[in-house]
Amino acid sequence: MTPTMTPATSGPALRVEGLGKRFGAVRALDGVTLDIRPGEVLALMGENGAGKSTLLKIITGDHRPDDGRLLLGGQEVSFGSPADARRAGVRVIAQEPEIIPHVSVAENVYVGALPARGRLFSHRALSERTRADLERLGFAGAMDPGCPGERLSPAQRQLVEILRALTGEVRVLAFDEPTSSLSDHEVSALFALIRRLRDQGVAIVYVSHRMQEILRLADRVAVLRDGRLVGVRPAAETGEDELVRMMVGRDLSAMFQRERNRPGGPVLALNGVTTDDVTDVSFEVRAGEVVGLAGLVGAGRSELARAVVGDLPIRSGEVLLEGRRLRPRSPSDTVRAGIGFAPEERKAQALLLHRSIRDNVSLAVLDRLSRFHLVRRAAERALVREYADRLRVKAPSVETEVRRLSGGNQQKVVLARWLARKPKVLILDEPTRGVDVGAKAEIYSIIDRLAADGVAVLVISSELPEVLGLADRIVVMQNGRVTGELDRRQAGEEQVLALAMADQITSEGARQ
Amino acid sequence: MSQTRVEAPAAAPEGRSAMRRALDGAGVQNISLLIALVLLVALIGAREPVFFGAANLKTIGTAVAISGLLAIGQTMVIILGALDISVGSVAGLASVASAMIFTATTGSAPLGILGALVIGALCGLVNGCVIVYGRVNPVIATLATLAAFKGVAQLVSNGRAQGYTGSDPVFVFLARGAVAGIPTLIWVLIIVALAVHVLLKYTDIGRNIYAIGGNDVAARLAGININRYILGVYLATGVIAALGGVLITARTGSGQPISGSEGLELEAITAAALGGCAMRGGKGAVSGTLLAVVLLGVLTNGMTLLGINPFWQNVAKGLLLVVAVVIQQVRSGERRVGLPA
Questions:
Q1: Apex CA B286: angle with CA B281 and CA B288, to 5°?
Q2: Could you tell me if A171 and A189 lie in one domain?
Q3: A384–B contact, CB cutoff 8 A
Q4: Are residues A106 and A94 in the same domain?
Q5: CB–CB of A417 and B222 under 8 A?
Q6: For residues B211, B213, B219 and B220, what is the CA-based torsion angle, rounded to 10 degrees?
Q7: CA spacing 20 to 30 A to A336: which of A497, B24, B213, B326?
Q8: CA pseudo-torsion sign B225, B228, B231, B233
Q9: Same domain for A234 and A344?
Q10: Quick check: B227 contacting A, CB < 8 Å?
Q11: pLDDT, tens digit, for every residue of A208-259?
């Protein structure tokens, strides 16, 4: 299991050249050229959506690039699948590794490569082998090789994934936010391991949001923004300030032109809301106001929204709608009370893809369109047409199946559904994800008009310019807690980003 | 943004020819079923002219009435995205119950029928509760109740036919009566089919059933109380299955715990699948199911007329179910990887 190392040649272990990738209208990567050298830790930084994961996925064979090429040890390679990449010695340690729940750690490690004599394999030999692997890597006693996968902690799961990677030849090893679920002690052990692998000549790619970690571990830092490589800095010669500036430094587009109106009284108020994912969240949204909920992916924003609409249970704290406490048992209660919610995963959570625009738009208002449960079809068609027109849904007819529409038009269908319902509060989770620029601008103006009509709007977005451009006020969350609230006049990308990563910086600082 | 093409005010549907509209209304699925039916009828009729006799057509009609009822119940469940394989057992239990209540009330047919329907409703409710609150997969849940309900029917009846309803005017009317020349059995099927058709196509309840089958997460987040719908649909299916059971009692003159109802779930599911109900939910219609029921009835009848070994009928039914679902899946374009969704 000792990783076989390629002789430390002078050239890069892996070179990506002019890499480009688009998803629909979105350019996820654009002309990225980068050397990943053996015996070096290269950190990859960037905001949500900057292209880090896409780059990682191309390197490890999950995606194929549209442009550019990969050179592994100077040879051009093309990976058709993650298995191809693994065979070539390029592996990624996923954030949440796939663990087979009912089999042992040892079998999880050697899955797909079970050492066997004929068709038989010995549980004991396998366990011993895994135990030896753990010792060699400095994790002796970290877990029992016989323990079933389902009982492993997140850190142990990661360790299984690392052991898997080291069962074969490794030339490039990528870590995707490996420390997000690890304790301090485990982080130190992981860093020691990474350094040892580096010293053995493995090329390490390390993706993280945690500034201090990166400055501690990395040899060089590459910063991505909007799919482009902004620059590469030696870790010793750069600092937090420069890196944050490289990550943001972007002009606010002229997309946001909005009449700021004076907001009315509070419509939605959260008071110490605690769920399985968020802790003690309090803030309010007033009539005619757009509040942005910013934070990194995984900060608990979507989970908070789902709890507010009754989709996830609230453990303590209260949600007030116009001063009255809501005790929702399911979203049907909150929809009736006047809260609309357009979830993050449009296709999976919001749309009936195989049904018409009409069916999708009228979904939340059928009760109002019916008399003695009979749907008044003319009224329905008129209403759907009205909103489809108002939101400029581009389609041959309202009977067109929604799966045939573009992402932007699909999102407009979801918005039309809620506009037709006329809610008091509308919660939009990533309303412009996967939407092209033109439709984005239209969606922004729809949100503006909603606020002008007195709706209290809460927008969850991972795109900072979007939050800054749209919102009157910005609530920043991190690790399930609110870390700050900013007025739009005082908010800049740096401030929001600092709050979104604040906890990690201080706790990392304390660690050192 | 004046250049954006504002969604054309649905000029399309009005502009098309009547023929085109009729075709669209019927759907590809129904038209292929109709063609298959015509071919089958021609094939059987050519070899056995008896097939077209009034007596034989009546036989087919009364034979499909009971399985047709269960298939219509199944259509609702499948559109919702679930499955109910306990319907045959519910029918058996209801048959026994109707006859026993009839006997116990010294000959009250209305009470017997009502009692059977209430028991059917309870059975449906049990199914729904096990699924929603017990979190049991619908196939497993109703497989369990398929056995359990059948067992209850055998227990209360000691495994024997119960009571004698053959001289009661109400049951006789159900079994052999006719209105406007059409047998009562067929009327029952027509009325239930129409009611479910209206429910599915013209009410918010039906539209929400399609929505839940199409995407339950989306339906829930749009404010539909999906638990209530699951319970309601299973309950309705239980009642319809029980009605089938009452008809079994009427036709045989006594309550039958097993005979006449066993295996009906297979026919019901086959008819629904053949009629165009997507097994993943969200798609299907009463009209397609009815056509498929008739097709299956003609097939069975034809095989009997042609003197084909009756054991082949089971093979044919099994084959048809698989073929119907395979065609669906091929059309949905699902990738051939792992277990089907």
A1: 85
A2: yes
A3: no
A4: no
A5: yes
A6: 150
A7: B213
A8: negative
A9: no
A10: yes
A11: 877 778 888 999 999 998 888 999 999 988 887 788 778 776 544 555 656 6
